[in-house]
Amino acid sequence: IISPIAVPTAFDGIDHCMLMTFHDLTPLRRVEEMRADFVANASHELRTPLAALSGFIDTLQGPARDDAKARERFLGIMQNQARRMARLIDDLLSLSRVELSVHVRPEARVDIAPLIRQVIEGLEALAKERQVVIELDLQLEAATIAGDREELLRVFENLIENGLKYGASGGRVVVSLTSAAAADGSEEFRFSVRDFGPGIAPEHLPRLTERFYRVDVGDSRAQGGTGLGLSLVKHIVNRHRGRLLIESTFGKGAVFTACLPSQKPVAGG
Ligand code: ADP
Prior knowledge:
Layout: E1 2-4, E2 18-20, H1 26-61, H2 68-100, E3 108-111, H3 112-122, H4 124-129, E4 133-138, E5 144-147, H5 149-166, E6 172-181, E7 187-195, H6 217-222, H7 229-239, E8 243-249, E9 253-261
Parallel strand pairs: 4-6
Antiparallel strand pairs: 1-2, 3-5, 6-7, 7-9, 8-9
The protein binds adenosine-5'-diphosphate.
């Protein structure tokens, strides 16, 4: 950006002077590119089930019109596709809500141990379907943090659900809650989910929390995934001033840990 400026008196005799300032537009451009990528990905993800729905409607109006069996089957598939779109829209809305409020730390006092139990109960049907045993190792009964109950439920749910979906079918998933000292000496709670499935190759690890990033898109879709879960988890954990750690030994399983700063109970509160 070049702009003319007034000539300082010390430079008498010089008629014109230019001030040149340089702005690095690279970060701004990167944000723009990320936004454009996000819109393109979201549109593509929504278009896929929509195209399937449209195709089945054509078939039901045409070749399958009088075939009761085919109609039944296609309606089932259409229901699944519609549910997938609804899940995707829910995740997109949750992500945008959390992103907008990422700088505001939630303040309600939440005891996380009962939430973890609640999530495991809700996932029992999936665990049964995948023939996975969930082992719960709660080393603390009272673990209070300053947080948002619904958001924390999403974190626990996403991480345990991923362990069930991507861990070895017929295996086990270990869910634990421990207390540890954070780098600054304060107390933090560590919620972790360990599975013994195929794990994640090192090149994928840094990208897992990107929106729509999936190691195997087909596998994720087959499991009803949207590719937004870990991105949402990371944003929620950040909003709670915590950290998300992902470790994996390829071929042996993965461990996802959400470290959340503790809130000491207020005396008499
Ligand atoms: P999705 O909706 O696809 O499950 P996530 O954001 O939750 O999206 O996860 C992103 C990708 O990370 C998944 O598609 C999967 O490839 C990989 N992933 C997540 N959890 C695990 C795990 N426990 N073991 C192996 N891969 C995993």
